[in-house]
Design goal:
The protein is an alpha/beta fold and 341 residues long. The chain has a single domain (10-321), classed as Glycosidases (TIM Barrel), CATH 3.20.20. Helices cover 36% and strands 16% of the residues. It is built from eleven helices and twelve strands. It has helices at residues 2-21, 44-53, 66-72, 85-93, 95-107, 130-143, 179-189, 199-205, 212-215, 236-250, 275-288; strands at residues 31-33, 58-61, 78-83, 113-121, 151-157, 161-163, 171-172, 193-196, 226-228, 231-233, 258-263, 302-305. The protein has an eight-stranded parallel β-barrel, surrounded by five helices. Strands 6-7 form a two-stranded antiparallel sheet. α4 packs across α5 (95-107) and α4 (85-93) crosses α6 (130-143). The two termini are 36 Å apart. The relative contact order is 0.13. The structure holds 2-acetamido-2-deoxy-beta-D-glucopyranose (NAG) (2 copies).
């Protein structure tokens, strides 16, 4: 009996591990964007510890900050690293600059688990430099034997999509004429398109037009807010993701996956921006991403914006400074469970 009592917990543990091992490879807990435009933020190593403590297994950063890359070394947290918009032109015009970038920020950090390189964030004007910069980085990664492990992409906002309603009508906007070629390039390399998606901003542009719960991922299950051919939508988030899928299909790049590289809801700065709504959106997003969208069922990879409030961000729109999930003392801004069910 005594022996069994000792063995039982081990058997139970083996069952738990067995169950974990059968989770499809695509399912992962959610990522969080680590923006640093705030005063007195915790150190990079404290932030990495914060991610670990909360079960956050991926991070997006907006520049190849070497303190953060150092802190991520050996952490097991996967990272998406941004090339700041100002640096894209240089990487586009000189292959040697791309090789140097890969050397300084990727090869120099062998214990960092790099996932994507995001070339530019919401670049619209001057989008023509994206493709040559992506190509140069891909060649540098290939030369280093890393082309299969690290995918090069770009992060775009919904404004690259011209027509966005209904979701099946999604096409890239004439003002983002470079996007079709970018999309086909991503298809050729097997990289995803990184999309920053904010139902909040769509909602506040015309608050009377839809139920706020459609924007908050909070409609009762089965509610049909938008019927688009054979697809029923109960969340603006899904409608926006599928709009990107339609635009990719229309560009001849229907095999490209959409990774949601930013999404969140501000907790202050407007009538609809309060802690209740911010908490609801973040938790609903975490709970939702395992399911996928009507067009693409299956897990979505998504990054919540953002780790901290960023009081140094400029602009009249107060909400921009209030996306933080954590306070500066590293406590949660509101209760949240990052590991999706
Ligand atoms: C798209 O994916 C399908 C299924 O994996 C594959 O057969 C097809 O060749 C892919 N098309 C392109 C253009 O990559
Ligand atoms: C947050 O805003 C919603 C309306 O969007 C409102 O119903 C709710 O009462 C507000 N919560 C707080 C705590 O202010």
């Amino acid at each position: 009996m005594a022996k069994q009592a000792v063995l039982l917990p081990m058997a139970a543990l083996a069952l738990v591990l067995g169950a974990l091992a059968t989770i499809p490879a695509g399912v992962r807990s959610i990522g969080v964007c680590y923006g640093m435009n705030g005063d007195d933020l915790p150190s990079a190593s404290d932030v990495v510890q914060l991610y670990k403590d909360n079960g956050i297994d991926s991070m997006r950063i907006y520049s190849p900050d070497t303190d953060v890359l150092q802190a991520l070394s050996g952490s097991g947290i996967a990272v998406t690293v941004g090339v700041p918009n100002a640096d894209v032109g240089g990487l586009a015009s000189r292959p040697s600059a791309a090789a140097a970038w890969v050397q300084s920020y990727v090869l120099a950090f062998p214990a960092v688990q790099f996932r994507y390189i995001a070339v530019g964030n919401e670049v619209v004007a001057g989008g023509r430099v994206l493709l040559p910069a992506m190509r140069n980085l891909d060649r540098a990664l290939s030369a280093a034997g890393l082309a299969d492990d690290i995918k090069v992409s770009t992060a775009v906002a919904i404004d690259v999509v011209g027509s966005s309603f209904p979701p099946s009508a999604g096409t890239f906007a004439p003002s983002a004429g470079y996007m079709a070629r970018v999309a086909r390039y991503l298809q050729s390399t097997g990289a995803p398109l990184l999309a920053n998606l904010y139902p909040y901003y769509s909602y506040i542009s015309d608050p009377g037009a839809v139920d706020i719960n459609y924007a908050l991922l909070a409609m009762p299950a089965g509610t049909v807010v938008v019927q688009d051919g054979g697809y029923s939508y109960d969340s603006l988030f899904d409608a926006m993701v599928d709009c990107f899928y339609s635009a990719l299909e229309n560009a001849g790049a229907g095999n490209v996956t959409v990774v949601v590289s930013e999404s969140g809801w501000p907790s202050a700065g407007s009538d609809a921006a309060n802690t209740t709504n911010s908490q609801a959106y973040s938790q609903n997003l975490i709970n939702h991403v395992g399911q996928g969208t009507p067009k693409r069922p299956g897990p979505i990879e998504a990054y919540i914006f953002a780790t901290f409030n960023e009081d140094q961000k400029l602009g009249d729109d107060e909400t921009r400074r209030h996306f933080g999930l954590f306070n500066k003392d590293r406590s949660l801004a509101y209760p949240i469970d990052f590991v999706n069910p």
